[in-house]
């Protein structure tokens, strides 16, 4: 399983709207208040055969992961120690590299060196649902997003809120049927969004569990808006796992690393929810000693000092 962020994982940078915005990587996880005028009409029929088949597939996938002892929700413990050196190394790999690149109008998985990106303006999350998402599931997902947003605010110290009236980070919960008609809404949320970004949201690859695309103005390294996709066919834990990964990656942790542990920014799916290690990564990302646009050479010495302050020895 994997996840994608725009510049996917915040990974692939591509020109977008506002005077050449940059789609900075998402976190698509492969087999790893909305404007009412833009909301598709409510359907009076049940899910399509394709959507029902996906729901059955994802139930089997979640069960398989749990049987194998994966998708842990404990945040890490004595069996997952890490040192300041490991934390600093993981930060560099996750925050200063991209997971995807845009080539020929397509997003391709390829780890490349990048620069530090994050939000300087307040982040305002809002959950939005396609007409195919059951009402009860909507209430559960909205509550989970609200609770997680409060946690992200505490961890980062950045102004982060849940605000459906003036959102700049939209979390879209969509069924397979809903995604077919999502292009107009995406163009409304991100004026000038590229066709490749829209195709990423409409992919038929069931290995893409969820993704997030974050955008910046021109060549800036500061984000101004983001849009996440979470498949509504996922069972409860997979949906919650997608919320944790995509909403955090959309803040600037664009890449995944096989060495990161305990972490959700690792495609091995050992952990399903944000860990104590990941909280430290977010805290470092929004530390005032770092600034958007920093390269690995510029940020590295500061990151190592911060990691020593936070961890010191094994945790």
TrEMBL record:
Segments of this protein annotated with the region Disordered: 18-49
InterPro entries for the chain: DUF2927
Positions with biased composition (Low complexity): 23-41
Protein's name in the database: DUF2927 domain-containing protein
């Amino acid at each position: 399983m994997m996840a994608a962020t725009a510049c996917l994982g915040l990974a692939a940078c591509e020109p977008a709207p506002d005077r050449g915005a940059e789609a900075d990587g998402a976190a698509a996880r492969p087999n790893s208040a909305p404007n009412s005028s833009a909301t598709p009409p409510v359907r009076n029929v049940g899910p399509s055969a394709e959507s029902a088949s996906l729901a059955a597939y994802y139930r089997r996938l979640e069960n398989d992961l749990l049987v194998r002892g994966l998708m842990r929700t404990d945040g890490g413990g004595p069996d997952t120690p890490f040192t300041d050196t490991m934390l600093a190394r993981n930060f560099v790999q996750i925050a200063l590299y991209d997971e995807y690149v845009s080539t020929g109008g397509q997003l391709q998985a390829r780890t490349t060196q990048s620069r530090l990106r994050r939000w300087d303006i307040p982040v305002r999350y809002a959950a939005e649902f396609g007409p195919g998402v059951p009402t009860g599931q909507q209430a559960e997902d909205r509550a989970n997003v609200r609770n997680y947003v409060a946690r992200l605010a505490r961890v980062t110290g950045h102004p982060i809120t849940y605000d459906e009236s003036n959102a700049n980070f939209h979390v879209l919960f969509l069924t397979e049927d809903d995604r077919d008609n999502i292009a107009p809404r995406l163009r409304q949320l991100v004026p000038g969004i590229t066709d490749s970004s829209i195709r990423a949201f409409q992919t038929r690859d069931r290995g893409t569990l969820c993704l997030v695309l974050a955008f910046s103005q021109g060549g800036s390294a500061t984000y101004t808006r983001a849009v996440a996709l979470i498949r509504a066919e996922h069972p409860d834990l997979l949906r919650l796992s997608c919320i944790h990964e995509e909403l955090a990656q959309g803040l600037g942790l664009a890449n995944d690393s096989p060495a990161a542990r305990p972490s959700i920014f690792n495609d091995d799916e050992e952990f399903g929810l944000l860990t104590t290690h990941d909280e430290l990564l977010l805290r470092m990302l929004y530390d005032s000693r770092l600034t958007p646009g920093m390269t690995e050479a510029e940020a590295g010495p500061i990151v190592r000092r911060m990691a020593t302050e936070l961890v010191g020895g094994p945790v």
